[in-house]
Amino acid sequence: MQSSASELSAHQETVNKPKTTKRLSILLELTRFIRPYKGTVIAAVIALIFTASVMLAVGQGVRLLIDEGFAQQSYEQLRQAIFFIFGVTILIATGTFFRFYLVSWLGERVSADIRLAVFNHVITLHPSYFEANGSGDIMSRITTDTTLLQSIIGSSFSMAMRSALMFVGALVMLFATNIKLTLIVMASVPFVLLPLLIYGRKVKALSRKSQDSMADVGSYAGEAIEHIKTVQSYTREPEERRSFSNEVEKAFLIGKNRIQQRAILIAGVIIIVFSAITGMLWVGGSDVISGQMTGGDLGAFVFYAILVGTSLATISEVFGQLQQAAGATERLVEILQVQPHITPPTNTAVSASTLTAEVAFDNVTFHYPSRPNQAATKALSLKAEQGKVLALVGPSGAGKTTLFELLLRFYDPQSGTITLGGVDIRQIDPDDLRQQMALVPQQPALFSHDVYHNIRYGNPRATDEEVIEAAKKAHAHEFIMKLPDGYKSFLGAKGVRLSGGQRQRIAIARAILKDPKILLLDEATSALDSESEHHVQQALQTLMQGRTTLIIAHRLSTIQHADKIAVLDQGKLIDSGSHSSLIASSELYQRLVELQFKQLQ
Question: What is the pTM of this model?
Fold first, then answer.
């Protein structure tokens, strides 16, 4: 699978510059999330049509009130008109209840489904995607954008449909009541559409900028809070306050501009609509005085004209919200359209559980997508024999961690092959492949949960007894029992309540519980004190028994017991052999050992 540096660069540009859609048609992407609830949609539409139809009947009640009640000076006619209007009001309230409940439920349900779909998709994406897209921006899309869509689906769509129905129905009633006055009202419609078209586009662009700026604010705050100890130890609080203030102010200015454009849009529509109604009242009032129409007809006409005006004003307001929703939908669809680069084989996959635990890198060359002109590995060939320990040593940037990431298929090499039991790992389903391995990194990832959850992450089906047994093998049981709630103790974000050695032993217990064929240890003891290292080394000895083990290590205590040591530098294999043979043959290895001795003195 060959790929040039220019192709990698082009791919990175694709990741960084996702496709954008400038039209409201992007909202049609939401239909696939709404479709499963078509029964609810139909019920909501029926309630909506019912409510709009009954609302139009109020105009006839106004006509009866004026012509039969006031004009005839009849208490009986007045009473009937009042009861008619009251009955219609009850029906409107009933219809509104069902419409509001059904549409709001739909908004909640669909936004939850979208949030779930985006998260489920995000966790399948290749690591290079996260090199180009910050976690804060992704979280903003999953939370803020879906919350906005919840409001749009649960409220704005309903308002738009109701207003559209009211507009059409009221317009029909206007023509039925007085054609001449209706033509006066209709003359204002083109003037209403003009600001919708002009300012609508501006609102759409500003909505996207506003959402992006809020994502930046969230990312900045999250990063500062995550590294709060570094911020405080360097007394950088004033600078962080100023920088965050700049981010917030930038977001505020964009939001203010967006609000200003929407306000202009709404105000312009209201002025145009009610100017037309004022003109209509002058002409209609003249016709009542001259006897060409009754006061009841004029009252009904005014009611329907106000319905037309308010419906148009509502539509113009909702139009701005839909522009904002289009920006949110666009950002969510961008994520959903990203295709994972690491996919299962198209043909029948080879079962990893049937293969031997022998790992081989054959002439592997790899460039990270974010560094297309710099090779992380160059034509590297290396083998880890089944049941043996292979140690990887070399200076920083030699490509040691890269080999782990390639073996786990977080990335695929541009050339060469990586095999498990003689089979190219691209012929194995990535989930099946990773199930055979356990990674214990230098900085273990612990979750904001209890000890049980963190160890059981290696095997979700494990019993409490199996978790405790794994902790004992990892030399972690003793300190766990001293925690306030033992195995049910909450560890805090990233295991902040534990020391480095304790976090490392929790990670080892997790790996023991997974019971993998292949063990990947990434400098598992480099940051520990002597006592912690002693406990971790004992736990590692238990963990490595009978397993193929690849170790990235700097400490001699970890290197010396290895069956084979591979010396890497700048992505190339410099030499390999035992500790004693490398001392005699490899200058780079000699230098690394000398540095170790100096550090120990």
Answer: 0.65
d(CA 333, CA 488): 39
Contact 365, 152 (CB under 8 A): no
Which span out of 3-12, 304-313, 317-326, 484-493 was modeled with the highest average pLDDT?
A: 484-493
Nearest residue to 489 via CA among 528, 437, 454 = 454
How far apart, in whole angstroms, are the C-alpha atoms of residue 210 and residue 272? 29
pLDDT tens by residue, 486-535: 888 888 777 777 887 888 888 888 888 888 889 888 876 655 566 666 77
Nearest to 537, CA basis, from 518, 560, 568: 560
Cβ atoms of 490 and 449 closer than 8 Å: yes
Judgement on whether residues 360 and 500 belong to the same structural domain of the protein: no
- Two tokens, residue 598: 């100096």
What is the chain's length?
601
Pairing verdict, β 572-577 and 548-552: unpaired
411 and 282, same structural domain? Answer: no
With contact defined as beta carbons under 8 Å apart, do 220 and 142 qualify? Answer: no
Q: Are 145 and 328 in contact (CB under 8 A)?
A: yes
Q: Identify the weakest region by mean pLDDT among 39-48, 96-105, 168-177, 196-205.
A: 196-205
Are residues 458 and 316 part of one domain? no
Answer for the pair 335, 145: CB distance below 8 angstroms, yes or no: no
Query: What is the tally of structural domains in the chain?
Result: 3
* Same domain assignment for residues 482 and 408: no
464 within some domain: yes
Structure tokens at 432: 């099946």
**DSSP type of residue 67:** I
| Alpha helix stretches (DSSP H) within 178-236 | 179-186, 189-226, 228-233
List the beta bridge partners of residue 490: 450
CB 366 within 8 A of CB 417: no
Q: Is residue 172 part of a domain?
A: yes
Contact 596, 423 (CB under 8 A): no
Residues 95 and 200 in one domain: yes
Q: Are residues 174 and 219 in the same domain?
A: yes
Residues 6+ apart with CB under 8 A from 254: 206, 209, 210, 213
Boundaries of domain holding 198: 16-336
Report which residue type is found at 601.
Q
188 plus 152 within the same structural domain: yes
> Is residue 194, in this structure, part of any structural domain at all?
yes
Q: What is the rounded distance in angstroms from the CA atom of residue 310 to the CA atom of residue 304?
A: 10
Residue 557: predicted pLDDT: 64
CA distance 362 to 356: 17
Tell whether 29 and 142 lie within a shared domain.
yes
CA angle 376, 377, 378 (to 5 degrees): 130
What is the average pLDDT across 268-281? Answer: 74
Q: How do beta strands 518-522 and 437-440 pair?
A: parallel
What are the two backbone dihedrals, phi and then psi, of residue 292, each rounded to the nearest 5 degrees?
A: -80, -15
| Distance, CA of 331 to CA of 216 (rounded, Å) | 14
CB 324 within 8 A of CB 148: yes
Q: Which of 140-144, 326-330, 423-427 has the highest mean pLDDT?
A: 423-427
